[in-house]
Amino acid sequence: MPLSCSQLSVFYGRRKALNNFNLDLKPGEIRALIGPNGSGKSTALQAIAGLITPHEGQVEINGKPAREMPRRTLAKQLAFLPQQPSAPDEMTVEQLVRQGRYPHVGLFRNYSSRDEQAIEWALESTGLANLADRSLHELSGGERQRAWISAALAQEAQILLLDEPTSFLDIGFQVEVLNLVHRLSRERGVTIIMAIHDINQAISISDRISLLEKGQLLFDGEPDELAESGLIEKVFRVQGNFVRIAPGSRPHFDIELIRS
């Protein structure tokens, strides 16, 4: 297992934001974390990334406790993209992507030919090679999100954590980002954990889904199993049905709207 979480618990004051969270990921797997606001998705990602210290439990990467790894070593293994990353608008795409090489370059920021190759690969993988000289404020929403993912890829980490990567994007840009995530998994073998609000997007792209509510892991399994569990209706307090557009296709949750 490239990454596993065992009995992770996180407290904010007296509130238990994450309660005995367990997770095992295979190489190249896409795992979606879903749940209502405040369910613990972002907390889980931050604990895995080492940005907050769990009060109980531990994270292991390739069988080694993540908390025992130096920060630079951990960054070579794992990249984290928060929900609303920020950088100066005048920064170019290439400059942003170069930031991703931080774990690899020396004290005086001397970029080797290996670093340059990684930067070029990250730009090409995200379709941004022709936009490398553009400043961030010139980019569309989808392009900017791809630029941040490109910076994460430049770390050459085999584990990528994404917190709501499609939020605030138009549907076309959402599809653009999800297609990129799928390619990274299938073509590059990157293991991806993605917190996401849209249930149907989670079902369409993920190999497995983890459903949280109030910090508790309620479900961990394949999309088809989730569709048959009845948990979506219960946890999100909506009425609807799972339907399949074609035989063998993944289920799609069709919400029943209340009409007067």
TrEMBL record:
<keyword id="KW-0813">Transport</keyword>
<keyword id="KW-0067">ATP-binding</keyword>
<dbReference type="Pfam" id="PF00005">
    <property type="entry name" value="ABC_tran"/>
</dbReference>
<dbReference type="InterPro" id="IPR003593">
    <property type="entry name" value="AAA+_ATPase"/>
</dbReference>
<feature type="domain" description="ABC transporter">
    <location>
        <begin position="3"/>
        <end position="239"/>
    </location>
</feature>
<keyword id="KW-0410">Iron transport</keyword>
<dbReference type="GO" id="GO:0005886">
    <property type="term" value="C:plasma membrane"/>
</dbReference>
<keyword id="KW-0408">Iron</keyword>
<protein>
    <submittedName>
        <fullName>Ferrichrome ABC transporter ATP-binding protein</fullName>
    </submittedName>
</protein>
<dbReference type="InterPro" id="IPR017871">
    <property type="entry name" value="ABC_transporter-like_CS"/>
</dbReference>
<dbReference type="InterPro" id="IPR027417">
    <property type="entry name" value="P-loop_NTPase"/>
</dbReference>
<dbReference type="InterPro" id="IPR003439">
    <property type="entry name" value="ABC_transporter-like_ATP-bd"/>
</dbReference>
<dbReference type="InterPro" id="IPR051535">
    <property type="entry name" value="Siderophore_ABC-ATPase"/>
</dbReference>
<keyword id="KW-0547">Nucleotide-binding</keyword>
<keyword id="KW-0406">Ion transport</keyword>
<keyword id="KW-0472">Membrane</keyword>
<dbReference type="GO" id="GO:0005524">
    <property type="term" value="F:ATP binding"/>
</dbReference>
<dbReference type="GO" id="GO:0016887">
    <property type="term" value="F:ATP hydrolysis activity"/>
</dbReference>
<dbReference type="GO" id="GO:0006826">
    <property type="term" value="P:iron ion transport"/>
</dbReference>
<keyword id="KW-1003">Cell membrane</keyword>
<comment type="similarity">
    <text>Belongs to the ABC transporter superfamily.</text>
</comment>
